[in-house]
């Protein structure tokens, strides 16, 4: 069966490459992806899947129902691009100024359409359902959260497991990496406004300068992390923007800071958030100025179910090799809105190797020069299909009452 899946996926590689390149050339941003959705729906139309469209986004779910009753599994691919230029020089480079598929979502979408073709060909021997979730708005637009809240998955039984693949340009083709537990961090945005009293730069004693307080806050946040957050519960606070003043001889009234908070547990996330408030207000009080702190909560921690990771590892060893799966020693501090799906159902996200051939230092995802080894598309399609078949073949799946 594993060899057959691999052969079928390889036979679909030209079609997946074409779809990936078509999407790469026409990237769309956020939750409004009309061209992308139309292109993917056209690709799936011959398969006769039941399609449910999101009313609030360009996301949709295409469901394959097997010939026999059984459980269900969800497979997800994100479809949106990033608001950035492309400098790859590819023949199929982005034709949309200021937009690029620099995170591999074009490849994710192509792999999942390939898996849909492989699994649809097995409809007569399939027990249960496979939900192919094509999602918009992953790059900071809360696409998965919106779809869950609007009830896109409320019809029918809940999936027993959910899986997603994410390209990794530094991982060789044929390798897969993941881990049980926290895989990716939460991502929150914080802003701090320090308000003092403006005045002449030659007479700071007649003003309340917010700039020294702002600078001290930046350093104090880093000290707070090392003194208050457990070293084995990683948290990262980065100050990424400071704005104050208009000219050389004026002490401004306000200074504004902005940054991100990343955490690998809800406990660390809450502790760091409380620390940001306390440090900002405490330092400002010491300087005789005032601080206003705002937190914009982003994606939660992406947490993999251990059983789902074990299942994916088993499938990878059958399809590829015994050493195909790499267990990651620690989480990565990037964030993913697949975290919302994994908050609702057990499952796993896995990184799949797409390292370009003969490239010593490949550009990472989110780079304007990021390249992919497209031979990885067939491996991803086979992995998607293999995991779905493994879940639905489990006699325990679908046997419990809803």
How would you characterize this protein structure?
Helix 1 packs across helix 10. The protein is of the alpha/beta class. Strand 1 (about 50-55) and strand 2 form a beta hairpin. About 35% of the residues lie in helices and about 25% in strands. The protein has 2 domains: about 1-185 and about 300-395, Zn peptidases (Aminopeptidase, 3-Layer(aba) Sandwich); about 185-295, Alpha-Beta Plaits, CATH 3.30.70.360. It has an 8-stranded mixed β-sheet with strand order 1-2-4-3-5-16-6-15, with helices on both faces. Strands 10-12-8-13 form a 4-stranded antiparallel β-sheet, covered by helices on one side. The protein has a two-stranded antiparallel sheet with strand order 7-14. It has helices at about 1-10, 15-25, 35-45, 105-120, 145-150, 210-230, 265-285, 305-320, 340-345, 375-395, and strands at about 50-55, 60-65, 70-80, 125-135, 160-170, 175-180, 180-185, 185-195, 200, 235-245, 250, 255-265, 290-295, 300-305, 325, 345-355.
Kindly list the characteristics that best describe this protein.
2 domains; 34% helix; Aminopeptidase; 8-stranded mixed beta sheet; alpha/beta; 4-stranded antiparallel beta sheet; 402 residues; Alpha-Beta Plaits; 10 helices
Task: Summarize the topology.
Layout: H1 2-11, H2 13-25, H3 34-44, E1 50-53, E2 60-65, E3 68-78, H4 105-120, E4 127-135, H5 143-149, E5 161-168, E6 176-178, E7 181-184, E8 186-195, E9 199-200, H6 210-228, E10 235-244, E11 250-251, E12 254-263, H7 266-287, E13 290-296, E14 302-304, H8 306-319, E15 325-327, H9 338-344, E16 347-353, H10 376-393
Parallel strand pairs: 3-4, 3-5, 5-16, 6-15
Antiparallel strand pairs: 1-2, 2-4, 6-16, 7-14, 8-12, 8-13, 9-11, 10-12
Helix pairs in contact: 1-10, 2-4, 4-10, 6-7, 8-10
